[in-house]
Write a structure and sequence with these properties.
Shape: elongated
Radius of gyration: 28 Å
CATH class of the largest domain: Alpha Beta
Structural class: alpha+beta
CATH superfamily of the largest domain: Bira Bifunctional Protein, Domain 2
Helix content: 25-40%
Largest sheet: 8 strands, mixed
Number of helices: 15
Number of strands: 16
Length: 414
């Protein structure tokens, strides 16, 4: 887990602002769910046999005997809130976005932290394939806004409860005939969660998987039609994609469409930047009524690392053009109110309350390159006036405190 300081904060803010601007256009509403949830929510939602639940969750038992976990991802908490607050009675679909920390006990490595941040989208209450593509399109727009190029969508369909069981049987039969070639983790997955073997990064497992049957060849008619529409919509909006028949993602709740957004070429970043898919069974699984849904999430730290690697510049904050030099206790005291007036008037002003010497303060103003210095001493404080000094010409004039904001705005427009 890590502190987020200085320049890192600027990256976070840039990403947050990009996400907010795009999702507001599409009328998503922000949701903030608790960081702690009942452990059972993730066991049922994310999946009992996923790596996240088996190996990576931070879990605890409270003094009252409750089993709680720090959220490893955002979707189950959003779905829980949808059910708990009766949002099925709202006009459907309900569209949420969120930006916040998640927690996984992972082996520390580049771009992976035990506390990390997700920017996520969820659309609950709509089964149309156009929603799958809109989620992808929105994320694609966000990542382009952050100056990423050469982006590619990897996409697949996992079918549904009608066609997946038959595919699972075919896959298990194939993998069992080659079980001795699998890594220890995948030998265990073969019994509990065989689809996860398709996602294994071990070279020997990937070699086995390359000859495995593909889900897209075993979709039922309804799933096949849904996936065909998704690909046609992607063609229509001109988003480049690659059909990856072995893309499964690491979460049990996905049905039909799953996708990842990656960067290609020389600037290729580490791993997946954004991922998601459809989860039509999750609301019912967590105690709600049968409700279709689709969503995805961006790994904020991963995007930041990629931005740094590619040399994406942050916009520099404009330096204040006004410096307030104050002398004496009364002037300092009145300066507090004066600075608040400037804030309300949207005039950026710098100051150094710790300095008492006028020459030192004017020296700071000169090094900052401000256009005007305000000189506010004991005499001015008693007379409710202030001196405006043009730092280029040295010309000074005295105005009433009530008029200073208007005079500065007039001068700064020149």
């Amino acid at each position: 887990m890590h502190d987020i300081l200085g320049e890192e904060q600027e990256y976070f803010q840039k990403i947050h602002d990009a996400v907010k601007e795009v999702v507001n256009f599409y009328h998503f509403k922000k949701i903030i769910t608790p960081i702690l949830e009942e452990t059972e929510l993730f066991v049922k939602g994310t999946g009992a046999f996923t790596d996240i639940v088996e190996k990576e969750m931070f879990s605890l038992r409270t003094k009252g005997g409750d089993n709680l976990s720090l959220r490893p991802e955002g979707t189950p908490g959003v779905v829980r809130a949808y059910i708990e607050h009766g949002m099925r009675n709202l006009p459907q679909p309900v569209k949420f976005w969120y930006f916040g920390p998640c927690f996984r006990y992972e082996r520390p490595q580049a771009g992976r932290y035990r506390q990390f941040h997700h920017a996520g989208l969820e659309v609950i209450g709509e089964k149309s394939s156009v929603v799958d593509v809109q989620i992808i399109q929105i994320f694609y727009g966000i990542i382009q806004k952050l100056k990423f190029k050469n982006l590619l969508i990897e996409i697949n369909s996992l079918g549904d409860l009608n066609c997946r069981p038959n595919y699972r049987r075919l896959l298990v039969r194939y993998l069992k005939s080659r079980e001795n070639l699998l890594c220890p983790d995948c030998k265990r997955r073969l019994k509990a969660n065989p689809l996860r073997i398709l996602d294994c990064k071990e070279a020997k497992c990937q070699e086995v998987v390359s000859g495995a049957p593909q889900m897209v060849d075993h979709l039922c008619n309804e799933c096949k039609s849904h996936f065909k529409e998704v690909l046609e919509f992607l063609d229509e909006v001109g988003i480049p994609y690659y059909l990856n028949p072995y893309l499964v993602r690491g979460l049990d709740y996905y049905t039909r469409t799953v996708f990842e957004i990656v960067e290609e070429g020389e600037n290729k970043s580490q791993g997946t930047l954004i991922a998601g898919g459809r989860y039509d069974n999750l609301v019912k699984l967590l105690g709600g009524k049968d409700t279709p849904a689709c969503g995805g999430a961006m790994g904020v730290e991963r995007v930041i690392n990629a931005m740094k690697n590619r040399g994406v510049a942050l916009s520099q904050s404009a330096n204040p053009e006004v410096y307030l030099a104050q002398l004496g206790v009364l002037a300092k005291r009145k300066s507090l109110k004066l600075l608040e007036d400037f804030r309300i008037a949207k005039i950026p002003v710098s100051e150094s309350f710790s300095k008492d010497s006028l020459s030192v303060q004017l020296g700071i103003a000169s090094r900052m390159g401000v256009k005007y210095a305000l000189v506010f001493g004991q005499k001015e404080a008693l007379e409710d006036s202030i001196i405006i000094r043009d730092m280029k010409t040295g010309k000074q004039n005295t105005v009433k405190i009530t008029e200073v904001a208007k005079e500065l705005k007039k001068g700064l427009r020149k």
